[in-house]
Amino acid sequence: MRDRSTAFDTGINKRDVFNGRRACVFCGARRGLTHAHIVPKVEDETWEELKGLGWVPQQAKDVVQEPRNGLQLCRNCHGHFDDLSVFVRYVPEVSKFVFMNFSNITDQPYVNLHQKAIGLQPLERCSPMACLFLIHECRVRGRHPFRQNPFLPQNIEWAHWIPWTGMAILSTVSHHFKAHLLPPRRRRRRRIVMGWKAGAMYKELRVGRGA
């Protein structure tokens, strides 16, 4: 029997690449990478309900295979995401996915990552569905019911590893990643292409900041 997660893994491996190398979309780590499901892969009924409500396209693959239901994370970030300590919020006004350290993890890099834009962009063809992050956020906030809904700063900066480490190059006009050819290495002519393929933008999902 063919592995049901093949399409899931392939889609994420092609999408979450920076400067020609795979990396965690939260912290930029290059080692210990795993693939996380936003809606857990055991929640087939939830997935079908989302399709019925029109939140997930009818043509989408199942909850296990759909790459738009997944993220490439290092083991530490994957653990914090799954145990409902952090969430991601899509901000349509600036077209950024923002990391929220909702449980106030005191370790780095999570303190510095709080309220920073991470390595995802909505123009990518297989970009995660923003509505799935909303469901995950509700679960995180349900686990911490007495914490206030965090307000976002007006100027949402990129996570420190994106503009400064050479992992990605940003367009200062569109605030999106742009395709970039690395300079060839000495005695080698092969060029590594880093970038995001253009695709259809998802419908804007507005999350109430004061809810």
Your description of this structure?
This protein has 211 residues and is of the alpha+beta class. It has one domain (6-194). 24% of the residues lie in helices and 14% in strands. It is built from 6 helices and 9 strands; from the N terminus they run αβββαβαββαβααββ. It has helices at 6-15, 44-53, 75-82, 110-113, 130-143, 161-164, and strands at residues 17-18, 21-22, 33-37, 70-74, 87-91, 96-100, 116-117, 180-181, 193-194. It has a 3-stranded antiparallel beta sheet with strand order 5-6-7. A hairpin with a 4-residue loop joins strand 5 and strand 6 (96-100). The longest helix is centred in the middle third of the chain and has 14 residues, at 130-143. The chain is globular and about 35 Å long.
Quick synopsis:
With 211 residues, this protein is of the alpha+beta class. The chain has six helices and nine strands, in the order H-E-E-E-H-E-H-E-E-H-E-H-H-E-E. A hairpin with a 4-residue loop joins strand 5 and strand 6.
As a percent range, the share of helical residues equals: 10-25%
Low-confidence stretches: 178-211
Beta-strand proportion: 5-15%
Number of helices: 6
Helix/sheet category: alpha+beta
Radius of gyration: 17 Å
How many domains would you count in the coordinates?
1
What's the layout of helices and strands?
Elements: H1 6-15, E1 17-18, E2 21-22, E3 33-37, H2 44-53, E4 70-74, H3 75-82, E5 87-91, E6 96-100, H4 110-113, E7 116-117, H5 130-143, H6 161-164, E8 180-181, E9 193-194
Domain HNH nuclease: 24-84
Protein name: HNH nuclease domain-containing protein
Organism: Dendrothele bispora (strain CBS 962.96)
